[in-house]
């Protein structure tokens, strides 16, 4: 095979995404999320999930997008899925707890946030969880129901 033919063959062969490609996609998805282009963010995070189905990052990204939209139940589902992929992910636990607060699921939030603190006691996710736990001190100790559920 000539060198030109081998270049064409190798150029046409699909390659696995490299770390830099995924980082670029993550940045693009987060930019879309942060600027209110939620559908585009979800599309990119979903593509990342398809490329890396065993990594929790895309699930966390999807969860944070739904959270930004005020769709807390959907966010909770994605954070739980991220925790199935990595049960020691303090970030997912902290964000899960935050979403549970917005759903007035205070006891579940306490459990999630305490778990984030156990995993990352001095890191940024543990500190976030500690701040949210302090916030919970001002909220009811029991779950809210019906019309009282609105925060």
Question: Summary?
Answer:
Helix content is 70%, strand content 0%.
Report on the architecture of this protein.
By secondary structure, the protein is mainly α. It has a single domain (20-149), classed as Serine Threonine Protein Phosphatase 5, Tetratricopeptide repeat. Helix content is 70%, strand content 0%. The chain has eight helices and no strands. Helix 4 packs parallel to helix 6 (90-102) and helix 7 packs antiparallel against helix 8. The longest helix is centred in the first third of the chain and has 16 residues, at 19-34. It starts with a helix and ends in a 15-residue tail after the last helix. Mean pLDDT is 88; it is low at 1-10 and 147-151.
Task: Draw up the topology in text.
Blueprint: H1 3-12, H2 19-34, H3 38-51, H4 57-68, H5 72-85, H6 90-102, H7 106-119, H8 124-136
Helix pairs in contact: 2-3, 2-4, 3-4, 4-5, 4-6, 5-6, 6-7, 6-8, 7-8
Radius of gyration over C-alpha positions, nearest whole angstrom = 19 Å
What's the number of structural domains? 1
Structural class: mainly alpha
CATH superfamily: Tetratricopeptide repeat domain
Summed up, the helix count is 8
CATH class bucket? Mainly Alpha
């Amino acid at each position: 095979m000539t060198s030109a033919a081998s270049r064409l063959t190798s150029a046409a062969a699909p390659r696995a995404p490299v770390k830099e490609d995924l980082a670029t996609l993550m940045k693009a998805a987060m930019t879309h999320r942060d600027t209110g282009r939620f559908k585009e963010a979800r599309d990119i995070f979903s593509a990342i999930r398809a490329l890396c189905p065993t990594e929790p990052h895309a699930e966390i990204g999807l969860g944070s997008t739904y959270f930004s939209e005020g769709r807390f139940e959907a966010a909770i589902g994605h954070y739980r899925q991220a925790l199935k992929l990595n049960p020691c992910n303090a970030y997912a636990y902290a964000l899960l707890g935050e979403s549970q607060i917005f759903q007035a699921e205070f006891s579940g939030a306490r459990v999630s946030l305490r778990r984030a603190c156990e995993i990352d006691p001095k890191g940024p996710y543990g500190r976030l969880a500690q701040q949210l736990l302090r916030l919970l001190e001002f909220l009811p100790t029991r779950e809210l129901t019906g019309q009282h559920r609105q925060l």
